[in-house]
Structure formats: structure tokens, C-alpha cells
Specification:
This protein is of the alpha/beta class. It has 2 domains: 67 residues, Histidine-containing Protein, Chain: A; 68 residues, Histidine-containing Protein, Chain: A. The chain contains 4 helices and 7 strands. The strands form 2 sheets. Strands 1, 2, 3 and 4 form a 4-stranded mixed β-sheet that branches. A 3-stranded mixed β-sheet has the order 5-6-7, with helices on one face. α1 crosses α2 and α3 runs antiparallel to α4. It is flat. It starts with 13 loop residues before the first helix and ends in a 30-residue tail after the last strand.
Length: 183
């Protein structure tokens, strides 16, 4: 190897650099398992084509493609192909099981309906992260084509609010560093 030459190629244009960065982002993303995602970049616009198994993979691939510096737009043309047909009852059963594990406020007011692979979520939760987590869980279920998240976030009733069992006896004060003389 001589001075100034390398054994690996460097991107020579911004589009090539963006392409390489997007490829790395998608490869490193743990929620993306598909190997059939194709990336093209023109004038800092990223085009995603190919197939993925779930709606969650499609969304995560788009997020990964938006992450690199210089990306101005992402055109997500990925198709969701679960490679197996699942009936709505199977999808609904998997979704209910996933929601029981993932959403802390699951109760009889939270409902999920499935028609032709389209999931509709309804009900009430007390936190936005619960609403978003329910949607994420639905997007990750094999056979789901899309999700309509109609879950409402409402303030928790006063009787559900946590209470402080023992108030602080002393006010908190910042720690003062102890300096020792160096001899």
C-alpha cells in the first residue's frame, strides 16, 4: 500500500455516502430482519423498495433511512409481505396476548378489532407511551397490514394517582466535594 491509497473504497459523492450510511443504519437496526430491502439515493432523496415481513419493519426502515446526515427526504415503497396468510382471529389473538404483556394499563376498556389484516385499536389509557406502545405491538404482529390507533389518552382519576407514603424529613441539599490538601 502506498501513501494516500486504501484497501477499501470511500464514497466519492454525497449520494454514495448517504447510500452507505443508510445501508449501515438498516443493517444495525434490530427491528429489521428482512434482507430484501433495496436502497437508491438521488439528490439526497432515499428510495426504499423491496419487501418486509411486518409493518413495524417498514416503519423502522424508514426511520433508519432518515437518520444519516444529509438525507432530505425518504420515499418508502416497501411492500409488507408476511409470506403466510393468517386469518383475522389468529392476528387478534396474537395482538391481545402481546398487549397484555406490553401495555401496563390493559383493562376491559382497551379493544382491538381486526378486519382483513387492518387493526383498529380503541379504548382509554393514561399515558401517551401506552398508546404508542399498543400501536407498535400491533405493527409487529405477522399478518397486520395497517393500524388505526383510536386509543385516547386521558388524565388518570384522582384515586389512581400514587400517594407519597413517607414525606421527606430533611430537605435535600447538594453534595459538597471534600478537598484534601496534597503535600
Amino acid at each position: 500500500m502506498t501513501a494516500g491509497t486504501f484497501d477499501f473504497p470511500f464514497a466519492t459523492t454525497q449520494d454514495q455516502r448517504i447510500h452507505d450510511d443508510v445501508r449501515r443504519q438498516i443493517t444495525w437496526q434490530s427491528d429489521i430482519q428482512s434482507k430484501e430491502i433495496y436502497i437508491a439515493v438521488r439528490n439526497a432523496t432515499v428510495f426504499l423498495t423491496g419487501t418486509v415481513l411486518t409493518c413495524l419493519e417498514k416503519r423502522e426502515a424508514e426511520k433508519a433511512a432518515k437518520a444519516p446526515y444529509g438525507v432530505t427526504r425518504v420515499v418508502n415503497q416497501l411492500k409488507v409481505d408476511p409470506r403466510c396468510h393468517r386469518c383475522d382471529d389468529e392476528i387478534a389473538a396474537d395482538l391481545r396476548a402481546a398487549l397484555l404483556l406490553a401495555v401496563s394499563a390493559w383493562d376491559s376498556e382497551l379493544l382491538c378489532e381486526v378486519h382483513d389484516g387492518v387493526v383498529t385499536l380503541r379504548g382509554i389509557v393514561y399515558w401517551e407511551f401506552e398508546r404508542q406502545r399498543a400501536e407498535d405491538m400491533a405493527l409487529g404482529i405477522l399478518g397486520v397490514c395497517s393500524v388505526k390507533n383510536l386509543i385516547e389518552v386521558q388524565a388518570a382519576p384522582r384515586d389512581c394517582m400514587p400517594t407519597i407514603v413517607a414525606p421527606l424529613r430533611k430537605p435535600l441539599r447538594p453534595l459538597e466535594p471534600k478537598l484534601e490538601a496534597v503535600s
